């Protein structure tokens, strides 16, 4: 996902209240009241979002006996109650000295959660039974998305080396994709596998920066940045960064030939990020983290899009969810489906709104998990695949649910 700084997570409601109060007092009153009315007209609720639970919640090992039902599990539809356990609380299962956790993937054989620290350029293994985190790979070349294929092999997206790799059972590494039409990839982001073993991944440009990858070499469509030297500091930086990248794509890798096919261009879907299949693999959902479309007729605007899947072709592009809550356009990131077809979305936004948004198969928001920080990605795991793991900067949050994850990871 795009790496966000803390300023983008500051509470919005306090500022909004102060501005509104000032408007009522006569300081630019007319303009501010009109702005507030416009916000209310486009909101699902006219009330400002609450920031904390009442009483204020404590997270982590010092947390008291959890509330039941959990006040930060918010239901908008009776169907949500069927997939939530009323006495299972949200928990901060782990927090530590990492920079930006992403790409959670559950190993069925190993019974552990694999995560990437994108900016820290490492991968970690989290053991849910002991809550212990250990180093899985000390240098991961700014890995992001991970998943396991139909044979239990680990697939990883690497920003630094601008490639998608597969770790074989004998410990060797196979490069599945690193170039398209002679140009290096940008920064492969998220990855999924279909029922036939086909590999789908998104390739936006979020990793072409110093803290989670490598800047582009100046070239066509890649103006020279005026605030850095693109190849300074890292050994083999010209190899790691490669030449300048290209427009964002969604790609498909054939499981037999390893042929790389572009199934969507940036003009069709700007800022492709998280992606997941429906339980029957007939629909592919893709999150757009771009705040606008790259082409007048294309998709973007921080929506989630749905596509019909036929082989390696995508058709019938449509908006599945607009990611709007309380008048604020949230930014979707990692997404996963459960076995009944609900889509669980990690979301960035103002404190009080960020967290996880859950949509039913028809695209209706049925509930949300109000979290203390942005959720970058999520997956279902545990022996029964009924534990939701959520990554959030330096933390892993969990929730036991009354459904199970669809697919592999």
From TrEMBL:
<dbReference type="InterPro" id="IPR013658">
    <property type="entry name" value="SGL"/>
</dbReference>
<keyword id="KW-0378">Hydrolase</keyword>
<dbReference type="InterPro" id="IPR011042">
    <property type="entry name" value="6-blade_b-propeller_TolB-like"/>
</dbReference>
<dbReference type="InterPro" id="IPR051262">
    <property type="entry name" value="SMP-30/CGR1_Lactonase"/>
</dbReference>
<protein>
    <submittedName>
        <fullName>SMP-30/gluconolactonase/LRE family protein</fullName>
    </submittedName>
</protein>
<feature type="domain" description="SMP-30/Gluconolactonase/LRE-like region">
    <location>
        <begin position="102"/>
        <end position="392"/>
    </location>
</feature>
<dbReference type="Pfam" id="PF08450">
    <property type="entry name" value="SGL"/>
</dbReference>
């Amino acid at each position: 996902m795009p790496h966000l700084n803390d300023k983008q997570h500051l509470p919005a409601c306090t500022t909004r209240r102060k501005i509104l109060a000032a408007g009522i007092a006569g300081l630019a009153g007319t303009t501010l009241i009109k702005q507030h009315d416009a916000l209310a007209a486009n909101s699902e609720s006219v009330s400002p979002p609450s920031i904390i639970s009442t009483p204020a919640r404590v997270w982590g090992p010092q947390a008291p006996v959890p509330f039941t039902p959990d006040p930060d599990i918010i239901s908008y539809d009776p169907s949500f109650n069927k997939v939530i356990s009323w006495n299972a609380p949200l928990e901060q299962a782990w927090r530590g000295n990492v920079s930006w956790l992403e790409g959670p993937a559950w190993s069925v054989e190993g019974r552990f959660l694999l995560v990437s620290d994108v900016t820290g350029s490492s991968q970690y293994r989290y053991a849910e039974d002991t809550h212990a985190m250990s180093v899985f790979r000390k240098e991961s070349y700014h890995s992001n998305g991970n998943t396991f294929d139909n044979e239990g092999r680990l697939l990883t997206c690497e920003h630094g080396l601008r490639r998608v790799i597969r770790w074989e059972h004998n410990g060797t590494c196979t490069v599945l994709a690193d170039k398209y039409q002679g140009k290096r990839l940008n920064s492969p982001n998220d990855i999924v596998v279909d029922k036939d073993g086909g590999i789908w991944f998104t390739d936006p440009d979020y990793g072409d920066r110093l803290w989670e990858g490598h800047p582009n070499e100046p070239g066509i469509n890649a103006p020279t940045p005026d605030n850095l030297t693109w190849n300074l500091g890292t050994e083999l930086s010209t190899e790691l960064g490669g030449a300048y990248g290209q427009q964002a794509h969604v790609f498909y890798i054939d499981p037999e030939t390893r042929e790389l096919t572009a199934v969507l261009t940036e003009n069709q879907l700007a800022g492709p990020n998280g992606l997941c299949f429906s339980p029957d693999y007939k629909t592919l959902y893709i999150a757009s983290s771009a705040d606008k479309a790259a082409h007048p007729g294309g998709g973007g605007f921080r929506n989630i899009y749905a596509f019909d899947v036929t082989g390696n072709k995508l058709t019938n592009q449509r908006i599945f969810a607009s990611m709007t809550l309380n008048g604020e356009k949230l930014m979707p990131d990692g997404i996963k489906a459960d076995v009944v077809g609900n889509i669980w979305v990690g979301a960035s936004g103002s404190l009080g709104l960020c967290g996880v948004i859950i949509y039913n198969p028809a695209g209706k928001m049925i509930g949300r998990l109000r979290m203390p920080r942005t959720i970058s990605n999520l997956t279902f795991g545990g022996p029964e695949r009924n534990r939701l793991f959520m990554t959030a900067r330096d933390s892993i949050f969990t929730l036991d649910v009354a459904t199970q994850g669809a697919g592999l990871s």
